[in-house]
């Protein structure tokens, strides 16, 4: 079984070419990791945003997903605040740490500005908040603590993940992987991808040829049949296994599990932890992800993190009444069950709390324990 999986992963990198900027990215990452390793700092790779699945080589159409990169960009800020160096591997044009406060907003960034004596200044009501963000941003730049890399497609994501993970190996347990990106589960392999735009009318039906003009050996994964567009995707191999076993055997690995059905969340998170035997799975539901998550780990069992009711950030897409639904009736069954920062603890009128400000200190503490554990194991092996 393991060999079949390994082969699927090996074949992936043989059959799907590396992105053009991979070399430039690895040069930057090597220098960044080396510098922070010399200074004894922890380094976290945060992945963020959704991967696309192109349907044509000269891509006009692609499959995408909902992720805006809020979780990743916000978490990156709190990791920096907790002393980590951060490699932020994100979907191009998704949210970025710090600038996220003023981009992708319902308002334009220009609404934060005004003209005063022929100069552009920040409006009085935004001064305090923007100054705070600007100071954090400048401190991070001064200390060279953040490296920003980007991907668009699933292929670009996987190649970058593999290369950066391998470069992080010398950090041992000081390396952490925080895999918040929404990664495509299905894709079009290179040998089933047409070169040119899929025609919407059969009269102009494409020739099913690749970049060299050769007819594809297998039918294209995306094609028109009659008046329909037929898309027949193949599974992306699960790279978590490869990351844990080979690319980063000593690194600390935090994966995410996204579900929409509350009854599946803890089960699936637990399943993932058992299957890949890594350190922590963070489960979240699509509709409550800004207010609650569940940690599932061998170290601490099941632990819910919830923003108190009167300190929750606003969300247009979230459904607050669903908070607690994935946890209903579970407390009494599980002795390892605990809840951090539950409802009703804060007085009305307090500022909103981002859930990542609760998640990252918890992870930092867990990371300290895991580093100590790794050191103890090493010492007992040498005695
Ligand atoms: O960006 P936001 O709008 O803030 O949303 C944040 C989020 C909901 C996307 C984020 O919190 C989250 O849950 N990210 C993970 C979503 C996801 O891909 O879940 P999954 O069940 O498909 O995958 C689970 C894990 O397997 C992931 O950590 C992924 O890295 C890994 N995986 C996935 C596919 C694949 N081929 N190989 C993998 O190893």
UniProtKB/TrEMBL annotation:
It holds the Pfam family DFP. Belongs to the PPC synthetase family. GO terms for molecular function: ligase activity. The keyword Ligase applies. Residues 42-95 form the DNA/pantothenate metabolism flavoprotein C-terminal domain. One of its GO terms (biological process) is coenzyme A biosynthetic process. It comes from the Eukaryota. Keywords: Ligase. This is Phosphopantothenate-cysteine ligase-like protein. Signal peptide: none annotated. The keyword Ligase applies. InterPro entries: CoaB-like_sf, DNA/pantothenate-metab_flavo_C. It comes from Polyplosphaeria fusca.
